[in-house]
Model the fold of this input.
Amino acid sequence: MKPKKMFKIAMLAFIILLCGSINHSFADDGYDLWLKYNKISDSQKLSEYQAAISSVVVMGDSPTCKVIKDELQKGLSGMLGKDISFSDSIEKDGTLAIYTLKELGDEEFIIKNLRVDDKDCIIIASGKDIGLLYGTFDLLRMMQTGKSLDNLNISSKPKIQIRVLNHWDNRNGSIERGYAGKSLWKWDELPDTVDSRYTDYARANASLGINGSVLNNVNSDAVFFTTEYLKKIAKLADVFRPYGIKVYLSIRYTLPSQMKTENGIGPLQTADPLDPTVIEWWKDKAQEIYKYIPDFGGFLVKANSEGQPGPQDYDKTHADGANLLADAIAPYGGIVMYRAFVYDPDVDPDRAKRAYMEFMPLDEQFKSNVLVQAKNGPVDFQPREPVQPLFGAMVHTPVMAELQVTQEYLGWSTHLVYLAPMWKEYLEFDTYAKGEGSTMAKVIDGSVHDNKLTGIAGVSNTGDDRNWCGHFFAQSNWFAYGRLAWDHELTAEEIAEDWIKMSITTDSDAINTIKTMMMGTWEACINYQEPLGLHHQMDNSHYGPGPQISRASRIDWTPAYYNKADENGIGFDRSSTGSDFTSQYFSPWKEIFDNIETCPDKYLLWFHHVAWDYKMKSGRTLWDELCVKYYEGTDYVEQMAKTWESMKDKVDPEIFDHVTAKLNQHVIDSAKWRDTCIQYFQGFSKMPIPESVKNN
Ligand code: BDP
Done:
């Protein structure tokens, strides 16, 4: 080969290599979530941080302290671009000192600048090691998001005690309503092989303050309660423990009649909660569970709902059902999260009313280690619902909120929908249970009714996809859920901003553009799917539109049951002249929702059957308003795709391409929702789509 040609080939190879390495160094597959710890790009900030922290002292050698050291090693060396020295005592200025202080609560922490032994230090202190880990993550987050480390005077503790993720994961690795691959739990490999991803999962959760995982689907499988599986679960619990995460299991009510305990009790003829042999069975099973997992968190229960067995099969109440389990695990400090997701058609023709009607009469009957877990809305995780009226109404029983992080009804892992604004709307809703200021958040955190036990659950959106959540932006929902579970007073904007800085970019223009884009996504999704209080209009997959569906094995599974569209109008009359669901609310909501004139537009068709030519507050007819909303939703998505395109040079190329592909589909899907729904409802309204809307 001629030298010139050889040189050319060598140059080409070099260029290819260079390009490869450039791409590689930027390519972000999303695995590291918000814990990337990239080197601080702002040189002034960098030197400020380098001066503030050059040495670390972690007092303690528990497994959690070891986690703290590892995290600091990773985080500080990554962000500061240099090795950090760890020592046993404070020897110089710029020491980060981490130690327990028994005056503080277990999870509570403080972060302060302090002069210790004549040295300038940053201290993180907490009552227990787990609080030190939370404080550590908080400090790292401050650095990731560019906050000053001067004049620190942070004091933080969670407002809610139990902050769990609910995994609807099945034994075979599938996930009910999971859109990010298969289950993270590899049951066939456990307990011998322990995937390193379990640690990464625990780390991510601990970084947010999540302190529990319900490992299996609420539609539970008895297999998880066999000794073989308890040993597998114990292994997961061992991995999670240093991160402060307890494991919980969803039970199946008929377990006593399905299997033997380790001591040979069962299978029994019955699972009746008041039967002495059943009581004995659960006590024995509890003993076995705690033998393998001494800090087991407790049970989640879906009973007498959607075909699941429950105490009512034995003519016993939900309280009887919950108390049986509560008594069995109380000696070990376990709790029962008993779901209020019940909608027996015999209770009332209106599905929205049923949970309240079943649970309210039981309010004083639950044992002290039981929480009732209710979804945020009275129907089922719809893009928008009014608040489930049980919040605030139950006084003696703590009601914990179940939020859905996985986007079952909000476009799966294809649509970009940031859910924090939705959760904030629920949390800030004033129930008026004890007069003004009785927000749902304050009901959940126990301050309205002085509940001793408090909790919040998020139905997880994680799976074994490399980026955990399917859609890169869906990571922001996991992040937001955890942050709000710790502190429901944070705003959706603040959380979005932190997430963007930690996950995408620290460029201030790009942060603002992406944040603004995220903030409108939820309202857009409502608009192109179910505007003005419409709900449950999806097809059987829960992804696409299905307003025309009027037949199913249950009438309350059909969109037609909810939209009630006819030539007179559209919407479900839940006012006092209709199903009277409005009376489940406290005043003034009861009256506000009841009156079509005062009912907020966003809930209008939830509470009222409204004539097509009804004059809305905007001055438009209902029909025109409906069309306007559908188009507003799709316009937003189209605009979002353009906005994202403008971010091309500002974000990682792999993330950019991934999100672009998702947005392309999002645009198509949102138009399908709009067109299918408008066309179907037009068959009743017989009114034209306003020109102004179409031409926009
Ligand atoms: C519904 C889901 C179903 C769940 C159920 C539940 O479609 O898969 O099992 O909720 O929460 O939204 O129990």
Observations:
- Residues 525-572+609-694 form a domain with the Alpha-d-glucuronidase, C-terminal Domain fold (CATH 3.90.1330.10).
